[in-house]
Amino acid sequence: MAGSPSGRSQGGRARVKTARGRTAASTRWLERQLNDPYVKAAKSEGYRSRAAYKLLELDERFKLLGHAQRVIDLGAAPGGWTQVVLKKRPKAKVAAIDLLAMDPIPGVAIFQKDFLDDDAEAMLVAAIEGAPDLIVSDMAANTVGHRQTDQIRTMALVETAIHFATQVLAPNGAFIAKVFAGGADPALVAELKRHFKSVKHAKPPASRKESSEWYVIAQGFKGAAG
After folding, report:
1. Which of 27, 116, 161, 195 is 20 to 30 A away from residue 223, measured at CA?
2. Model pTM?
3. Of the residues 178, 193, 200, 209, which is catalytic?
4. Domain range spanning residue 168?
């Protein structure tokens, strides 16, 4: 990046100079960040992360936020998805939870807590004073470096989130969760189809091509007894 000590421009693309103590992997990560249009857009528009554009793009396609009054954001840190919810629905009641600390967002109930804790679900519903009509989840398990194990651990989180959604969502509510290439497990898809009128998979443009992440979008909740 011209004028920056961290890189130099070649044909409009920032190239990162090597530095003592910086690994090749970290150099590649920094270079990717410098050249990522979503990173630049997030900084320009005040979003806390490029992930905000994933939800914006999913909303553009599936019209998820248009009538949301109560929203729960699972795996919310650093807060990009929560910011999108409030931008689209500034009067919505919103609760967000993550193991990681998250800077305050006015009007949002934020919990630094494990979603798997026994009292977490009740706290989230109480914070928005009623049944949510949208639950969004960008949760992923902490990786151990073994792809299959990492996917199994994340899918266990998705399963827990689905159970939560089918217990607390308002009728006609919607649920979004991060999954991996190939989509949600067939048994989980079957469970979602039992409870929702529409279940689809999507990979928003903001999701990096090399990433294995996809999202499952379930709409039209039939009710807890569905």
Report:
1. 116
2. 0.81
3. 178
4. 52-221
